């Protein structure tokens, strides 16, 4: 059988092009897999931070359910009056006036959740009858921040509590 000169090596060339295409598809699949893995890790980290912030809110609300609350006039130790200039900025991670949950409360977080409580307003409600005592109702703004496994994953939650 005779092979013409123009057909020499064409099978090799076609197989090399095919191999190059398969390699490019493989590399693209690997990059896609790596990206999905990073997204899943970031999503998990944010979910851990959200759960930590929720734990901070629950702790602060349990404190507010207690019999004695305050004093808010000192504007320290995580208890503040609304509109006070000393209320820490929740975006600043270096604020020292936040109350933190005890160490080792939550595992797998960069730092334990922190919270502040602001006394927003205190109102009096009059009784329906002349002999009924006046009831005092207080509203509190609770701000909690939680961290994930890395300090970059931070979630801030806020709730209003009526007592």
Automatic annotation (TrEMBL):
Name of the featured protein: Type IV pilus assembly protein PilX
Organism: Stutzerimonas xanthomarina
InterPro entries: PilX/PilW_C, PilX_N_dom
Residue span, PilX/PilW C-terminal domain: 103-163
Positions of the Type 4 fimbrial biogenesis protein PilX N-terminal domain: 8-58
């Amino acid at each position: 059988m005779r092979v013409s000169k123009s057909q020499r090596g064409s099978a090799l060339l076609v197989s090399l092009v095919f191999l190059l295409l398969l390699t490019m598809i493989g590399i693209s699949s690997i990059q896609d897999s790596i990206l999905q893995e990073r997204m899943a890790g970031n999503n998990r980290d944010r979910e851990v931070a959200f759960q930590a912030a929720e734990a901070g809110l629950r702790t602060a609300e349990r404190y507010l359910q207690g019999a004695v609350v305050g004093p808010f006039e000192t504007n320290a130790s995580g208890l503040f009056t609304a509109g006070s200039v000393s209320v820490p900025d929740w975006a600043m991670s270096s604020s020292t006036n936040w109350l933190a949950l005890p160490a080792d409360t939550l595992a797998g977080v960069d730092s334990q959740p922190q919270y502040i409580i602001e006394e927003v307003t205190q109102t009096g409600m009059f009784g329906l009858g002349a002999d009924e005592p006046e009831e005092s109702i207080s509203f509190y703004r609770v701000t909690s921040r939680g961290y994930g496994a890395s300090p970059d994953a931070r979630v801030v939650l806020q709730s209003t509590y009526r007592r």
